[in-house]
Every structure is written in structure tokens, then in C-alpha cells.
Amino acid sequence: MDKADIPFLSATKLAALIGKREVSPVEATEAYLERIQRVDGKLNSYITVSGDHALQAAKAAENEIAAGRYRGPMHGIPYAVKDQFNTRGILTTGGSSILSDFVPQDDATVIANLDRAGGILLGKLNMSEFAMGTAVAHHYGVPHNPWDLGRNPGTSSSGSGAATAAFLCATSLGEDTGGSIRGPGAFSGVVGLRPSFGRVSRHGMIGAVWSMDMAGPISRTVEDCAITLGAIAGHDPNDRYTWDAPVPDYLAALDGSVAGMKIGIVRERMDDDQMDGEVQEAVVKAASTLGELGATVEDVSVSLAPHCGVIFNGIAYPEGASVHRRNIRERLGEYDHNIQIRNLTGSILPARAYYKAQKLRQVVRRQVLEALEGVDLLLLPTSPILAPPIRTRAGVESKEHLMADLMGRNSWTTPFNLAGVPAISVPCGFSTDPVLPIGLQLAGRPFDEATVMKAAHAYQQATDWHTRRPPV
Predict the structure, then answer these.
(1) Is 156 an active-site residue?
(2) For the purposes of burial, counting CB atoms within 10 Å of the CB of 320, is it exposed (0-12), middle (13-18) or buried (19 or more)?
(3) Is 426 helix (H, G, I), strand (E, B) or coil?
(4) Catalytic residue among 24, 45, 156, 157
(5) Which of 185, 323, 360, 443 has a 20 to 30 A CA-CA distance from 416?
(6) In angstroms, what CA-CA distances link 91 with 49, 55, 86, 285, 447?
(7) pLDDT value at 409 more than 80
(8) Which domains are delineated in the chain?
(9) Is 301 annotated as catalytic?
(10) Single pTM value for the model
């Protein structure tokens, strides 16, 4: 096939061609590097492109496959990762100038796992500073949404959403503390999966909020998410909070059927003044489609869901400030202005507020798990709004603006971070003017990523939203 067409294949289709030796890993890697060179100047999705490293790895993969040592569906697949994961010998910045010269000596476990699976690392992707989504300034260039260059591609895994949507990598990794995989998935029109807490190692990952950070895939299809998660998931002795639980064959679970499934629509998140009308319409239609495919769809309640943004921030602010306590004392002025405010706020938040938020977190977790006793999955929008314009003004503009940040779209994603359960965003439509993607969110029981992806895949197979290309 024409090399220029390779980036437009799904990772799963590319894997099939590589496995049959109809496309070589070197051809695929060259095709992606050439497209990055042509397109990424518009997007700023990459901080570092590791071209020489990628071509060396691609040649090694090609030789292995030629010798009959094919490792599986990630072998020879060019991928990229949020610049939050340590990469041996490759700059790792966390999106901050504070780490502008940090070159790790070891790989994060997820990188080592992808290397073991035969993946080809193309480079490191742009992000909000230290994965704190309120940043306005970006030290390595403002990332842009490929559907509309004036729009946010999603925070904080901004580059992962933009690069994947714009065909600048076959699949990618993001990190989701309060929605930073699913948000870019929705805003950039791709699939983003936050796994269960403890499913994926965090060893070698720059932390944001210890009790909720989780790495996961951002991909163009659910199948691509399945092979990416399959490569990175599992117990890691270097991270004692990973569960020693079997990792299913996620790809094999995608049979295109939801027959017999029970899906609960979280009614508290489907009727809200903040929700864009086109978002609501698209998600209601998506729920109807799942019903037509054989699922039983009914309303359920998670009564604290509207308050989850505040509960989340009551935990995230002080935990984040704790991570950065030394730099807050010694290098505060080097942070983005909004991150300075966030870190200072987290530093002085009363212990009783943090304790209250932790108690409320347990109530949220209980409500989510109780809802999942009666249904297999929970359904709601990923975001109540479309991708917003890129912010250019730092600081707090008004009380209303502050409350929207504290209680806004995070309240649609954070219930599942607070509960520690898996959740996915899959494209379910587009707005009309401007034309921007809309995301459907499905959440499941702890360590049941297979069911979450099974339903998302069935929906994706029945629709064509994921086949549309952004105009870049």
C-alpha cells in the first residue's frame, strides 16, 4: 500500500498487516514520522519526537518478525505517550519548564511493558503542566484541537487526544486523574479508557494526585484501546498498589454484542442546565442505539454525582500541593499562573475539608457500586459541553467562573475516579456549527474493563462517528 496511507489505518488493522508482513514496522514508523513533520506544526501535540530511537526500534522489530518471532498485536506499532511517563534516555518534562532538562535513566513500567510487546515509541506528547488541567500557559507550545484549531483538545492529556485524532500515532497513552483521558477522548473525537485503580502500574509516572492517578489508552477505536491496555496492564512489583489479578484477552471479548446487558442511565447527569442541547440529544440517541442492539436500558441514580467535582477537588488540590511542596517553596514562580493558584490553595486548604471530602468519596464509591449491582454499566455524557475555545486569560475571572471550574464538567467524569472503577469515552456524534465531536461515557464494575469495552465496541460497530477525519 502507499506509505502515506498507513497512518490512517487503525492500530489493529496495521497490526494484522505487520503480522502478515505486508507492511513493515520501518515503513509504518517512517510514515508516521513524515506525517508528524507535515502536520504537527499546526497542533503542537508533541513535545519531543524521538525519530532516531523509533527507527532503531522499528528495524529491530522488523528483523524479529522476519525471523518468526512475532510478539503480538503491538509488535511494530508506532505509539506515543503523554510526557508524564519516564522514558530512558528521552527528555521527560511533565509539561513543565521545571523539568526541561530531565532525562530519566529508566523507563516507567508502562513504557517497559510496551517495549516488551514490541511497540515503537515515536515521542512524548504535550500536556497541561504536571497534569493539572487548569493551566493556561504551555511551556512547549499550546496544543490545538484538530477539529478546530481555536479549540481545546482536552486536558490534561491534550497532546494524546490531538495526536491520536490527527493520525500522528497509531495509539497513545494518557493519564486520567479526574477525566484527563476521557476528556481528550470526547473533545478530540477518539476513544479514551481510564482503567480501574490498580489495573495499570504507576511506577515511573510523574504523579498528580496519588489516590486517583491512572494511566490508560487513548486510541481511535475500541479495538485499539483493547490491544494497548492488554500490553500495559498487570501486576508490577514496583507498584504495590497494582492488583495481582489476571489480565483478560480484551480483544477477544469484543464480539460486537450487548445482548442481555443492562445499562443504567445516570439520571442526575442527563438533565442539567450546564449541558449543551446537542450533547444531550446525541447521548440520548446513543442510549437508544444500545437498546436497539439488545441491551436493556433504564434510569438509575447516583445522587452525589452532581457534587463529585467539588468532592474531587477537595482531595486533588491538597494531594497535588503535597506532590509539589518543595517546588512550591523554592520555584513557585516557574509554574503557570493558574497552577500557582491551585498549588497555593491546596497548601492552605484546611485538613477538615480534605477529611470531609475523603468521607464523601466513600459515599460516592458506595453509590456507584450499588448502582452497578443492578446494571452492568452506567451511561452518561463524557462532558456536558463541546470542546471550549482555548483559554488565553489566566486567573479567576469571577465567582461564577470559579464555581464552573470546581463544579463543571469534572462532575461528569470524577464519580468514577472517586470510585476507582473503569470508564470509557467513545464518539457518539458531532455538533452542527461548529462541527465538534461529542463523547458517550460508559463505566463498569472494578476490573471489568472487558465489559466496558465490549459495549463501547458494539456501539462503535453500529455507528460511523469514529470513521470521520478532522480537517488537518
Answers:
(1) yes
(2) buried
(3) strand
(4) 156
(5) 323
(6) 10, 17, 8, 44, 33
(7) no
(8) 3-467 (3.90.1300.10)
(9) no
(10) 0.97
